[in-house]
Amino acid sequence: MMSFIPKAVFPAIVFASFSAQAATISFNDLLVKPTSDFQIIDCRSSNHYNGWPEDGAPQGGHIPGAINIDANWVNDLSPESLQALLTEKQIDASKPTYLYCNETGSQLLSSALKTQGLKNVSIIEEPLQNYTGELEALPKFQYLVSPQWVKDVVEGKQPEFAPKKGYKLVEVAWGPPSKYLASHIPTALYLNTNRIESEPWWNRVSDEKLTEIIREFGIRYDTTVILYGRDNTAAARAASMMMYAGVDDVRLLNGGWTSWVNAGFTTEPLLNTNKTNVDFGKAIPANPELIIDIPEAKAMLTKPENEQSLVSIRTWDEYIGVTSGYRYIKPKGRIEGSKWGHAGSDANHLEDFRNPDLTMKSAKDITRIWQKWNITPAQDVSFYCGTGWRASSTFFYAYVMGWENISVFDGGWYEWSGDKSNPTNTGDIKPPQTMTF
User: At what angle do helices 232-245 and 389-400 cross, to 10 degrees?
Assistant: First the structure.
C-alpha cells in the first residue's frame, strides 16, 4: 500500500497578488528538511504522478507526500475554481511550497499560486531523476493507462507494460455508436452497454450472455482489454464485468476520450468490428466475487462496522433522500448501514473523484474522503450507486490503489429499493467514528 503524510484541514486560501519570480531549490535540499515544515507540489500529469515514467526516466511516481496539481489545469480554471482546488488539496498558504515539473509548467503554476496568497513558492529546476529517495506510485498504476501508452500500443510499439498476448481496444457507451462513428481512437471497437446490462434493474446480463459477447469481441482471458468512453463511467462498468468474467489484464484510459483529444492524437471514423470469434479459455465468471448481488450485500452488512463497508457512490442529496437521482427510480434514500463514499454534482458526474481534466484524483485525495466515513482497505468493501456505473468507477480506482477485498454491488439502490422489505433510511447522518491509523 502507498503511505500518505496526513495533513490537517486548512482554511480557504486568501486572494493576493505577487510579481516576484519563484526561487529555486534542489531535491537534496528538501531531503534534510522536516517534511512538516513545507509542502511540495508535483505539477506534472497525473499519469506521471501515478507511476508512469516520463520519457527517459527509469521509473515513475512522485516524491512522498507530494500533492498533484497539474500545471495544465490552471488555464482552464477560474480564480474561484482554483481557490476551491487548493482548499480541497489542503494547501497551506503559510508554508514554503516547492514545485517540480517542466519549466513552463512550474512558472505558470507558481504565478497562479501567488495570486492565491502563497508568498513563499520555490521551483525545483533539476529533473526528478536526481531525487535519491524512494518514489511513491499507485500499486497498480499500469492498469490506469495514459493516452501516450494507448497510442504506442496502437502503433505497434512496445511501451512499458505492453500487452503480452494481443489487445482489444474498446469504446464503451450507452446506445448506438453515433459519436463513435464520426471519430474514435484508431482500431477501437464499440460496445453498447445495453448489450451487457439487462432490464428490469440494469444489472449485468447472464453469464451465458456475457460469455457470448466477450467471444464476439475476440477476447480471451489473456487478451489485454483497453477500455475508454466519452463518459468513462461506462468504460469502468465494462471493466468491472471483464474482470468479473476473468480477463487477466483490463486497462482503463485515464480521463477517457477527453484525454485522447486533449493530447491531440489522431482519430478515425466508421465502424471497426472483430473478425474472428474466440473461446475465452476458462469458465465465466472466473472472479464471481467482484460483482455481488443483494444476498451478499445483506451478508456484508451483518459484519461489524469496522470490518466492512457497503459504500454509496451517490450524491449527498441521493444519500439522504432528497432525490433519487434518476427519473426512472422513484424511492429516495439509502441502504440502511451503508456509508457515504462521495460522488459528484448529480447522477452523471463524479467530480469528487476526478481532476479538472477528468483523470483520476490522487489516491491521497480519495483515501482522505473515504477514511472520514471509516472506509478502509483492510475491510470488505463493496461499492454501489443507482445502477452500477459510478460504483464501477470507484471500484476500479480502489483496484489501482491496491485495495484487495473489493466488489461492485450490482443492483445498487435501484434493485434494493425495489423491494420494500429491504431496510432503508433517509435524513441527515454524521460519519461513523473513524479508525485511527
Answer: 70
Query: Are both 270 and 332 inside the same structural domain?
Result: no
State the total domains in the chain: 3
- Strands 23-25 and 39-42, bridge-based pairing: unpaired
In a domain, residue 435? The reply is no
Q: What is the DSSP string of 170-203?
A: EEEESSS-HHHHH-B-TT-EEEEGGGTEETTTTE
Same domain, 195 and 259: yes
C-alpha cell, 368: 482522505
DSSP-derived 3-state class of residue 39 = strand
User: Rounded to the nearest 10 degrees, what angle do helices 103-115 and 79-88 cross at?
Assistant: 100
Residue that has been written with the C-alpha cell 464503451 in this structure: 172
CB atoms within 10 A of CB 279: 9
Flag whether 8 is in a domain: no
Amino acid letter, residue 189: L
**DSSP for residue 82:** H
pLDDT tens digit string along 180-222?
A: 999 999 999 999 999 999 999 999 999 999 999 999 999 999 9
How many Å apart are CA 366 and CA 376, to the nearest integer?
11
pTM of the model: 0.93
Residue 312: phi, psi to the nearest 5?
-85, 110
Q: Where are the beta strands (DSSP E) in 299-435?
A: 308-312, 334-335, 339-340, 380-384, 406-409, 424-425
Q: pLDDT tens across 7-31, in order? A: 333 233 333 333 344 456 889 888 8
* Active-site residue, selected from the candidate residues 40, 144, 385, 406: 385
Decide: 425 and 339 in contact? Cβ < 8 Å.
no
Helices (H), 251-402: 256-263, 294-301, 316-320, 363-371, 389-400
Closest CA to 315 of 339, 337, 347: 347
Domain finish residue from 227, 255, 286? 286
Phi, psi for 342 (deg, rounded to 5):
75, 170
Cα pseudo-dihedral 40, 45, 46, 47, rounded to 10: -130
385 is catalytic: yes
